Protein backbone atom coordinates (compact mmCIF):
# COMPACT_ATOMS: atom_id res chain seq x y z
CA UNK A 1 0.00 0.00 0.00
CA UNK A 2 1.35 3.42 -0.94
CA UNK A 3 2.40 5.77 1.85
CA UNK A 4 -0.01 8.43 0.59
CA UNK A 5 -2.92 5.98 0.85
CA UNK A 6 -1.91 4.97 4.36
CA UNK A 7 -1.70 8.61 5.43
CA UNK A 8 -5.12 9.29 3.91
CA UNK A 9 -6.68 6.41 5.85
CA UNK A 10 -5.06 7.57 9.08
CA UNK A 11 -6.33 11.09 8.42
CA UNK A 12 -9.89 9.89 7.85
CA UNK A 13 -9.81 7.76 11.00
CA UNK A 14 -8.56 10.72 13.04
CA UNK A 15 -11.27 12.97 11.59
CA UNK A 16 -13.99 10.40 12.30
CA UNK A 17 -12.78 10.00 15.90
CA UNK A 18 -12.91 13.75 16.46
CA UNK A 19 -16.42 13.96 14.99
CA UNK A 20 -17.85 11.02 16.92
CA UNK A 21 -16.45 12.43 20.16
CA UNK A 22 -17.99 15.86 19.52
CA UNK A 23 -21.68 15.38 20.32
CA UNK A 24 -23.87 18.38 21.08
CA UNK A 25 -27.53 18.58 21.99
CA UNK A 26 -29.48 20.28 19.18
CA UNK A 27 -30.72 23.83 19.59
CA UNK A 28 -34.48 24.51 19.56
CA UNK A 29 -34.06 26.16 16.16
CA UNK A 30 -32.25 23.19 14.59
CA UNK A 31 -34.09 21.01 12.08
CA UNK A 32 -34.49 17.36 13.00
CA UNK A 33 -36.07 14.32 11.34
CA UNK A 34 -37.99 11.19 12.36
CA UNK A 35 -34.72 9.36 11.61
CA UNK A 36 -32.40 9.02 14.65
CA UNK A 37 -29.45 8.20 12.38
CA UNK A 38 -29.54 11.47 10.44
CA UNK A 39 -30.27 13.37 13.65
CA UNK A 40 -27.25 11.77 15.31
CA UNK A 41 -25.04 12.70 12.37
CA UNK A 42 -26.14 16.31 12.82
CA UNK A 43 -25.68 16.18 16.60
CA UNK A 44 -22.09 15.02 16.03
CA UNK A 45 -21.47 17.75 13.46
CA UNK A 46 -20.93 15.21 10.70
CA UNK A 47 -23.95 16.72 8.98
CA UNK A 48 -24.49 20.47 9.44
CA UNK A 49 -25.67 20.87 13.02
CA UNK A 50 -28.68 22.94 12.05
CA UNK A 51 -29.93 20.14 9.78
CA UNK A 52 -30.75 22.53 6.97
CA UNK A 53 -29.96 22.89 3.26
CA UNK A 54 -28.66 19.35 2.91
CA UNK A 55 -27.66 17.96 -0.47
CA UNK A 56 -27.24 14.40 -1.66
CA UNK A 57 -23.40 14.63 -1.79
CA UNK A 58 -23.28 16.05 1.76
CA UNK A 59 -25.44 13.22 3.10
CA UNK A 60 -23.47 10.59 1.16
CA UNK A 61 -20.21 11.86 2.68
CA UNK A 62 -21.73 11.85 6.17
CA UNK A 63 -23.03 8.30 5.81
CA UNK A 64 -19.57 7.29 4.63
CA UNK A 65 -18.27 7.92 8.17
CA UNK A 66 -20.62 5.11 9.25
CA UNK A 67 -19.03 2.77 6.68
CA UNK A 68 -22.08 2.95 4.40
CA UNK A 69 -21.20 2.34 0.75
CA UNK A 70 -21.53 5.27 -1.64
CA UNK A 71 -24.16 3.45 -3.69
CA UNK A 72 -26.33 2.69 -0.66
CA UNK A 73 -25.85 6.17 0.77
CA UNK A 74 -26.80 7.77 -2.55
CA UNK A 75 -30.03 5.77 -2.63
CA UNK A 76 -30.94 6.80 0.91
CA UNK A 77 -30.06 10.45 0.35
CA UNK A 78 -32.00 10.56 -2.91
CA UNK A 79 -35.09 9.22 -1.14
CA UNK A 80 -34.68 11.89 1.54
CA UNK A 81 -34.50 14.58 -1.14
CA UNK A 82 -37.97 13.53 -2.35
CA UNK A 83 -39.41 14.89 0.90
CA UNK A 84 -38.23 18.41 0.06
CA UNK A 85 -40.82 21.04 -0.85
CA UNK A 86 -38.66 21.60 -3.93
CA UNK A 87 -36.73 18.42 -4.81
CA UNK A 88 -35.57 19.96 -8.09
CA UNK A 89 -33.66 22.52 -6.04
CA UNK A 90 -31.43 19.74 -4.74
CA UNK A 91 -31.68 20.61 -1.03
CA UNK A 92 -33.80 19.48 1.90
CA UNK A 93 -34.05 20.04 5.64
CA UNK A 94 -34.17 17.19 8.14
CA UNK A 95 -37.67 18.21 9.23
CA UNK A 96 -38.89 17.58 5.67
CA UNK A 97 -38.58 13.84 6.33
CA UNK A 98 -41.57 13.92 8.69
CA UNK A 99 -43.94 14.11 5.71
CA UNK A 100 -46.09 11.03 6.11
CA UNK A 101 -45.90 8.21 3.61
CA UNK A 102 -42.58 8.92 1.89
CA UNK A 103 -39.95 7.75 4.38
CA UNK A 104 -41.89 8.32 7.62
CA UNK A 105 -44.39 5.55 8.35
CA UNK A 106 -46.85 4.30 10.94
CA UNK A 107 -45.62 1.82 13.53
CA UNK A 108 -42.26 3.49 14.16
CA UNK A 109 -39.99 2.04 16.82
CA UNK A 110 -39.60 5.39 18.57
CA UNK A 111 -42.17 7.88 17.25
CA UNK A 112 -45.92 8.30 17.54
CA UNK A 113 -48.00 7.79 14.43
CA UNK A 114 -48.63 11.08 12.65
CA UNK A 115 -52.40 10.66 12.98
CA UNK A 116 -52.23 10.02 16.74
CA UNK A 117 -49.73 12.55 17.99
CA UNK A 118 -48.65 14.83 15.20
CA UNK A 119 -45.08 15.17 16.51
CA UNK A 120 -43.83 12.26 14.43
CA UNK A 121 -40.34 13.76 14.13
CA UNK A 122 -39.83 13.73 17.89
CA UNK A 123 -38.64 10.84 20.04
CA UNK A 124 -41.46 9.40 22.18
CA UNK A 125 -40.38 7.56 25.32
CA UNK A 126 -43.65 5.66 25.73
CA UNK A 127 -43.41 4.27 22.21
CA UNK A 128 -39.76 3.34 22.71
CA UNK A 129 -40.52 1.63 26.02
CA UNK A 130 -43.07 -0.52 24.23
CA UNK A 131 -40.43 -1.42 21.64
CA UNK A 132 -37.95 -2.36 24.37
CA UNK A 133 -40.55 -4.58 26.03
CA UNK A 134 -40.44 -7.00 23.12
CA UNK A 135 -36.90 -8.03 24.11
CA UNK A 136 -38.14 -9.49 27.42
CA UNK A 137 -35.27 -8.16 29.52
CA UNK A 138 -32.46 -9.45 27.30
CA UNK A 139 -29.45 -7.19 26.82
CA UNK A 140 -28.78 -8.64 23.35
CA UNK A 141 -30.97 -8.33 20.25
CA UNK A 142 -31.08 -11.22 17.80
CA UNK A 143 -32.51 -11.04 14.30
CA UNK A 144 -35.50 -13.02 15.56
CA UNK A 145 -36.17 -10.65 18.46
CA UNK A 146 -35.61 -7.60 16.23
CA UNK A 147 -38.20 -9.01 13.83
CA UNK A 148 -40.64 -9.65 16.69
CA UNK A 149 -40.22 -6.10 18.00
CA UNK A 150 -40.82 -4.58 14.58
CA UNK A 151 -43.90 -6.69 13.94
CA UNK A 152 -45.18 -6.12 17.47
CA UNK A 153 -45.09 -2.36 17.03
CA UNK A 154 -46.88 -2.58 13.68
CA UNK A 155 -49.54 -4.92 15.04
CA UNK A 156 -50.15 -2.68 18.07
CA UNK A 157 -50.48 0.46 15.97
CA UNK A 158 -52.79 -1.22 13.51
CA UNK A 159 -55.21 -1.74 16.42
CA UNK A 160 -54.77 1.77 17.85
CA UNK A 161 -54.69 3.94 14.76
CA UNK A 162 -57.96 4.11 12.78
CA UNK A 163 -56.08 5.57 9.80
CA UNK A 164 -53.13 3.16 10.02
CA UNK A 165 -51.41 2.54 6.70
CA UNK A 166 -48.90 -0.12 5.69
CA UNK A 167 -48.30 0.31 1.98
CA UNK A 168 -45.52 -1.49 0.10
CA UNK A 169 -43.46 1.68 0.55
CA UNK A 170 -44.24 1.76 4.29
CA UNK A 171 -43.34 -1.91 4.52
CA UNK A 172 -39.90 -1.28 3.05
CA UNK A 173 -39.39 1.73 5.34
CA UNK A 174 -40.32 -0.32 8.39
CA UNK A 175 -37.91 -3.11 7.50
CA UNK A 176 -35.20 -0.55 6.72
CA UNK A 177 -35.68 1.12 10.12
CA UNK A 178 -34.75 -2.12 11.86
CA UNK A 179 -32.09 -3.10 9.33
CA UNK A 180 -30.30 0.21 9.95
CA UNK A 181 -29.72 -0.31 13.66
CA UNK A 182 -28.85 -3.97 13.15
CA UNK A 183 -26.36 -3.07 10.40
CA UNK A 184 -24.65 -0.36 12.43
CA UNK A 185 -24.51 -1.93 15.87
CA UNK A 186 -24.38 -5.71 15.43
CA UNK A 187 -21.36 -7.31 17.05
CA UNK A 188 -19.47 -9.24 14.37
CA UNK A 189 -18.29 -11.84 16.88
CA UNK A 190 -21.67 -12.69 18.42
CA UNK A 191 -24.04 -11.76 15.60
CA UNK A 192 -26.25 -9.94 18.11
CA UNK A 193 -26.86 -6.25 18.79
CA UNK A 194 -26.06 -4.95 22.30
CA UNK A 195 -29.28 -3.34 23.52
CA UNK A 196 -27.38 -0.53 25.24
CA UNK A 197 -26.09 0.73 21.88
CA UNK A 198 -29.63 0.87 20.54
CA UNK A 199 -30.88 2.73 23.62
CA UNK A 200 -28.19 5.39 23.24
CA UNK A 201 -28.84 5.71 19.51
CA UNK A 202 -32.58 6.25 19.86
CA UNK A 203 -32.88 8.14 23.15
CA UNK A 204 -29.87 10.45 22.83
CA UNK A 205 -29.51 10.40 19.04
CA UNK A 206 -25.85 9.79 19.62
CA UNK A 207 -23.43 7.16 18.31
CA UNK A 208 -22.01 5.17 21.26
CA UNK A 209 -18.37 5.92 20.50
CA UNK A 210 -17.54 6.61 24.17
CA UNK A 211 -18.93 3.18 25.06
CA UNK A 212 -16.58 1.42 22.63
CA UNK A 213 -18.64 1.15 19.44
CA UNK A 214 -16.82 1.66 16.15
CA UNK A 215 -18.33 1.75 12.60
CA UNK A 216 -16.62 -1.47 11.53
CA UNK A 217 -19.59 -3.12 9.80
CA UNK A 218 -19.62 -2.42 6.07
CA UNK A 219 -23.16 -1.43 5.08
CA UNK A 220 -24.05 -2.14 1.46
CA UNK A 221 -27.24 -2.75 -0.45
CA UNK A 222 -26.48 -6.47 -0.39
CA UNK A 223 -25.80 -6.61 3.35
CA UNK A 224 -28.95 -4.62 4.13
CA UNK A 225 -31.02 -6.84 1.82
CA UNK A 226 -29.70 -9.92 3.60
CA UNK A 227 -30.75 -8.52 6.97
CA UNK A 228 -34.20 -7.57 5.65
CA UNK A 229 -34.62 -11.06 4.20
CA UNK A 230 -33.79 -12.65 7.55
CA UNK A 231 -36.14 -10.28 9.35
CA UNK A 232 -38.91 -11.23 6.92
CA UNK A 233 -38.24 -14.94 7.44
CA UNK A 234 -38.75 -14.37 11.17
CA UNK A 235 -42.00 -12.42 10.72
CA UNK A 236 -45.52 -13.94 10.45
CA UNK A 237 -46.39 -11.49 7.71
CA UNK A 238 -48.33 -12.02 4.51
CA UNK A 239 -46.85 -9.67 1.88
CA UNK A 240 -50.28 -9.33 0.24
CA UNK A 241 -53.02 -9.50 2.87
CA UNK A 242 -51.12 -7.50 5.50
CA UNK A 243 -50.79 -4.48 3.21
CA UNK A 244 -53.02 -1.61 4.39
CA UNK A 245 -53.54 1.25 1.97
CA UNK A 246 -54.19 4.75 3.38
CA UNK A 247 -57.78 5.75 4.04
CA UNK A 248 -59.18 9.07 2.87
CA UNK A 249 -58.88 10.40 6.42
CA UNK A 250 -55.18 9.57 6.52
CA UNK A 251 -54.31 11.40 3.34
From TrEMBL:
Keywords: Heme, Iron, Metal-binding, Oxidoreductase, Peroxidase, Signal. The keyword Metal-binding applies. InterPro entries: Chloroperoxidase, Chloroperoxidase-like_sf. The keyword Transport does not apply. It comes from the Eukaryota. Residues 19-226 form the Heme haloperoxidase family profile domain. One of its GO terms (molecular function) is metal ion binding. Its cofactor is heme b. Belongs to the chloroperoxidase family. This is Cloroperoxidase.
Amino acid sequence: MKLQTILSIIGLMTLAKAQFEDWQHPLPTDSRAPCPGLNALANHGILPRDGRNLTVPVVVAALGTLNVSAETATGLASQALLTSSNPAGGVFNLEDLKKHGILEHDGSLSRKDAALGGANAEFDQETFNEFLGYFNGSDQITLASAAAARWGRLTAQRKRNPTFSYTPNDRFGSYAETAIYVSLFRDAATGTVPLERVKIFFTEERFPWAEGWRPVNRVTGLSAANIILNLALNTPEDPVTDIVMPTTAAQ
